[in-house]
């Protein structure tokens, strides 16, 4: 689909290299359209921009209008409608995670977005996909990768929470949000030492039987996607430095890791501070 009024730009991200279209100076001066593609309504719908098309909402890790955001996951209301220029239909079925939901009923878990919701999310995030670049089966792989990495992050959180098993044996995830460009102090220090920056960051708030504990998760590029697990990211998961208890936990774990490393323990390498050195630790990155 031609976009003569916009400038194409190749961008590499966690899901591969895509073409992003940005507005020219003249377009930025114009009042924004309510079309989901912002400024290319005529080319997408064939209609005049004076007739405002329907605004599509999606459950995506992006901020929309503040009144539309669910504070527990920083996502707009779920939307299963196909995008106006979508080249093929996508499933709307959603998968259940294994992550318990703090504000839900007993046994309730967080629910992952469907392929259709994820497609809408990427459009709102500024990505532009063409039919030649993406096949329907690719979305199934993308969802599998997304869900797998969230499950892996929760596994790392539980390793930390094991330090407080006597206090609370059933921690739950209360809310979360993405901070892709708000790099953590740890990530910045690693970058100063010559390592690459994470491509994404999440902050998760865990309910430890009534006590809120914030975790910082940095996502690093781990190379090719694992065929068996669908994992491609290396995770650095740790409690935030915002309470004495969290600081003490990290000090204890650091001491344990140093002791194991001194004794030549095979699982003591890597940069993650998790109580058990995970396979997801961003080693040599």
Could you explain how this protein is built, in words?
Lyase that catalyzes the covalent linking of the heme group to the cytochrome C apoprotein to produce the mature functional cytochrome. Its EC number is 4.4.1.17. It catalyses: holo-[cytochrome c] = apo-[cytochrome c] + heme b. It comes from Ixodes scapularis (Black-legged tick). Its main location: mitochondrion. The protein is an alpha+beta fold and 285 residues long. It has a domain of 122 residues. Helix content is 26%, strand content 20%. It contains 6 helices and 8 strands; from the N terminus they run E-E-H-H-E-E-H-H-E-H-E-E-E-H. The protein has a 4-stranded antiparallel β-sheet. The N terminus and C terminus are likely disordered.
Summarize the structure.
Helix content is 26%, strand content 20%. With 285 residues, the protein is of the alpha+beta class. The two termini are 38 Å apart.
Number of separate helices: 6
- Strand order within the widest beta sheet: 5-6-7-8
Topology, number of strands? 8
Strand fraction equals 15-25%
- State the major sheet: 4 strands, antiparallel
Average pLDDT score:
74
SSE pattern? EEHHEEHHEHEEEH
- Termini separation: 38 Å
Family: Belongs to the cytochrome c-type heme lyase family.
Pfam families: Cyto_heme_lyase
Keywords: Heme, Iron, Lyase, Membrane, Metal-binding, Mitochondrion, Mitochondrion inner membrane
Protein name: Holocytochrome c-type synthase
Could you outline the blueprint of secondary structure elements for this entry?
Blueprint: E1 6-13, E2 16-23, H1 25-29, H2 41-45, E3 96-100, E4 109-111, H3 115-124, H4 136-161, E5 172-178, H5 185-192, E6 200-208, E7 211-221, E8 233-239, H6 244-262
Antiparallel strand pairs: 1-2, 3-4, 5-6, 6-7, 7-8
């Amino acid at each position: 689909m031609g976009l003569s009024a916009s400038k194409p730009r190749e961008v590499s991200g966690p899901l591969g290299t895509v073409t992003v279209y940005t507005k020219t100076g003249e377009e930025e001066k114009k009042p924004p359209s309510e079309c989901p593609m912002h400024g290319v309504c005529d080319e997408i719908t064939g209609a005049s921009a004076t007739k405002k098309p329907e605004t599509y909402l999606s459950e995506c890790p992006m901020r929309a209008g503040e009144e539309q955001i669910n504070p527990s996951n920083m996502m707009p209301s779920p939307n299963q409608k196909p995008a106006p220029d979508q080249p093929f239909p996508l499933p709307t079925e959603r998968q259940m995670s294994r992550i318990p939901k703090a504000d839900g009923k007993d046994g309730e878990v967080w629910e992952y977005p469907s392929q259709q919701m994820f497609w809408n999310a990427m459009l709102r995030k500024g990505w532009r996909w063409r039919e030649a670049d993406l096949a329907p089966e690719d979305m199934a792989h993308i969802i599998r990768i997304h869900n797998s990495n969230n499950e892996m992050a929760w596994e790392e959180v539980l390793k930390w929470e094991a330090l407080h098993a006597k206090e609370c044996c059933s921690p739950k995830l209360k809310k979360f949000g993405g901070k892709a460009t708000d790099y953590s102090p740890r990530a910045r220090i690693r970058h100063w030492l010559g390592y690459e920056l994470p491509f994404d960051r999440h902050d998760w708030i865990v309910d430890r039987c009534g006590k809120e504990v914030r975790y910082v998760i940095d996502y690093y590029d781990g190379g090719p996607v694992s065929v068996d697990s669908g994992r491609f990211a290396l995770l650095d998961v740790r409690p935030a430095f915002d309470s004495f208890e969290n600081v003490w936990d990290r000090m204890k774990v650091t001491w344990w890791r140093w002791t194991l490393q001194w004794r030549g323990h095979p699982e003591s390498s890597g940069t993650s501070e998790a109580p058990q050195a995970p396979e997801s630790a961003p080693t040599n990155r």
